[in-house]
Amino acid sequence: MSLSASDAQLIADQLGRTPTSTERLLFENLWSEHCAYRSSQRLLRGFDSESPQVIVGPGDDAAVVDPAGDEWYLTLGIESHNHPSFVDPIDGAATGVGGIVRDTLSMGAFPIALVDELFVGPLDDPQNRYLLEGIVSGIAGYGNAIGVPTVGGGVELHPGYTGNPLVNVGCLGLVHRDALVTAAAETVGDSLVLVGSATGRDGLGGAAFASADLDADAAVEDRPAVQVGDPYTEKLLIECNTALIESGVVHAARDLGAAGLGGATAEMVAKAQNGAVIDLAAVPQREPEMRPEEILLAESQERMCYAVAHDDVQTVMQLAERFELTAAEIGQVTDGHYRCTFEGQTVVDVPAELVADGAPPESHPQQVPAQSEGPVTTIPLREAVTQLLADARVGSRAWVYRQYDHEVGLRTCVPPGDNAAVIDVPELQTQVAIASGAVPRWTEAAPRQGAMASVLEVATNLAVVGARPLAAVDCLNAGNPTDPAVYGGTAEMTAGLAAMCTELDIPVVGGNVSLYNQSDGGSIPPTPTMLMLGADAMAVPPGMQAAGGGTLAVLGDLDGGLGGSLHAAVIGGGGSFPDLPNAPRRRLETIAEVARSPAVTAMHDIADGGLLVALLELVGTTTGATVNVPDQRALFTEQPSRILVETTDAELLREVLAERMPMVEIGRTTADTAVRLTAGDEQMVIDDTTRGSVNDRLADRFA
């Protein structure tokens, strides 16, 4: 993506001259949508990011929160690596993991958990299968090697992601309050030291590439824009970063991500209204005859930039050598312009704030999409159940998460596959929970309400493990903002997220925006991935496996619209999107209290596939159930913040609820493995073969 004529003129006017070729490329990358959020700046103003527990909010590499008012903080970040994962799924996904880990390092934190949310097209398309296999392989290969557990995430299948998969990766970090650093290089005279891998030509123009539509030839033509990662170097960098932080020499830090060295150093000094002098020839290079713009903008992985006192440069060099990493002093912080030289020639001389923060925001025409409406398609119960269970979207994700190491570090209390991951943090003397997700069917049907429902769904997953929401970061994925319908959907999605987060009193402390997710097949559905941190989680929550012999009850309503549901996607017709509950914050507090009740033996939120799928996941393969509901709608609606519970004492559970939330008894769990359904005047039995397909359906696509 090149500079527009208006941008080029603005830059020339500000500089009082025509920019050099290197300057032009630097502006092209840092003024791209990927770096400057030009089309989303105004939309993001609706988020409330302030709270007493927020130490560092939006604007740095990761957010920092104080969950316990103690000496230890947690960091939270999320980023996208969508376009690279289409062009090269293994390296694209792997470097997404590496990038969010280095964002964590930039705050002085040690990474303790990863999550990944993946969105791909239907798996009956060989290209989509290839992409998912490669993406999962890239995440597993990189995450497992660096020793950071992957504890949660999800896989969403939707036709809108054919040709444009999404890879959204989040990271949780731990930092002592005295070790916290930021990206602001505030001390004039500090040296800028580059540590990690040498610089190559991979990832050239990655930021600009991430701000462009994908076409059928992208997999070949754009491969040079995809970074190539080395997890073993990343592991060394993690350890070296910890040693550097503990040494106390680091004044500021930033990883080299979008726009490479140029992006990192310009942003570091711009944050403090300073400048810099960078000697590009001093940058360690792994390829011969690299041009200055290549050195400045390559997005080679596993690199960090530190601002340290000149007298401490030798300490950095010694620690880098200890961990077998390349290191070089490449410049200084100044009170002037941002200047880059190469072999005695000045190739960049611009105000740091202009290049880092000067891109003018953009606003585009909006067409607010109408909510999908229409009659609900009704077919016999047996056909509806059979068709729904045959769909890969209800399949177990175990094939995916079993490839990830979730036990390394010995902090994981509740592993992937449950309602939410629970992480033990002995430093805080407590457990925290993390949950993430987005439901594109919901935001496609009703962008604003669907986004609100997505937030509520993620928060519900925290409540089911007894946690209270503490903070959230978001990854807003959408198509080309110059399309009025796309931009209207993006605006509605963002407004919905902000509204529900405010309603739940959850500060949105950071995030990422990824636009231009559009291929030859059209735009992706609005996809608001949320990563949410919960405090005071249970080390041993009720879990999703029924014990048998208990009462089954739904906390919440049985009625609700089918708009945006899997039933609508598979069978057709959807009607209206379900209403959201009143007083959702109070409802979450009630669910968290229920999770701690001795009367509850199993809990599962009702989401994809509605009550039917939640029921089959709850009973698993070792128990059965007898269930009676008023009609089919009760089985398939996906109204959020509803819970399916198995209880040994229904009356005690009603006392816990104390009329704060509806409770409807629907049946009992049984010792045998059959699931007997009655919906109105229709009946059927789901046997072991049919039910087992829920657990195998996704993996079947790769057999």
List keywords for this structure.
35% helix; 703 residues; Phosphoribosyl-aminoimidazole Synthetase, Chain A, domain 2; single chain; 25 helices; 60s Ribosomal Protein L30, Chain: A; 25% strand; seven-stranded mixed β-sheet; alpha+beta
Q: Provide the residue-averaged pLDDT.
A: 93
Task: Determine and state the CATH class of the largest domain.
Answer: Alpha Beta
Q: Taking Cα atoms only, what radius of gyration do you get, to the nearest Å?
A: 25 Å
Number of strands: 28
The helix content is: 25-40%
Please give the domain count.
3
CATH topology of the largest domain: 60s Ribosomal Protein L30, Chain: A
Gross geometry: globular
Question: How would a crystallographer describe the biggest sheet?
Answer: 7 strands, mixed
What's the N-to-C terminus distance? 40 Å
> With helices defined by DSSP (H or I, 4 residues minimum), what is the helix count?
25
Strand order of the largest sheet: 8-10-7-11-9-12-13
Helix-strand category: alpha+beta
Low-confidence stretches: none
**Roughly what fraction of the amino acids lie in strands?**
15-25%
CATH architecture of the largest domain: 2-Layer Sandwich
Can you put this structure into words, describing what you see?
With 703 residues, the chain is an alpha+beta fold. It contains 25 helices and 28 strands. Helix 10 (231-247) packs antiparallel against helix 13.
List strands and helices in order, with pairings:
Elements lengths: L4 H11 L5 H10 L2 H4 L4 H4 L9 E3 L6 E3 L6 E9 L1 H6 L1 H17 L4 E11 L5 H21 L3 E8 L8 E11 L14 E6 L9 H4 L8 H4 L9 H17 L2 E6 L4 H12 L3 E5 L12 H6 L5 E6 L4 H10 L3 E9 L3 E5 L2 E6 L1 H6 L23 H9 L8 H4 L10 E3 L6 E5 L4 E8 L2 H6 L1 H18 L3 E10 L6 H20 L4 E7 L3 E2 L2 E2 L3 E9 L15 E5 L10 H6 L12 H12 L4 E6 L4 H10 L4 E6 L2 H5 L6 E5 L2 H8 L5 E8 L4 E5 L2 E5 L1 H13 L3
Parallel strand pairs: 4-5, 9-12, 17-18, 24-27
Antiparallel strand pairs: 1-2, 2-3, 3-6, 4-6, 7-10, 7-11, 8-10, 9-11, 12-13, 14-15, 15-16, 16-21, 17-21, 19-20, 22-25, 22-26, 23-25, 24-26, 27-28
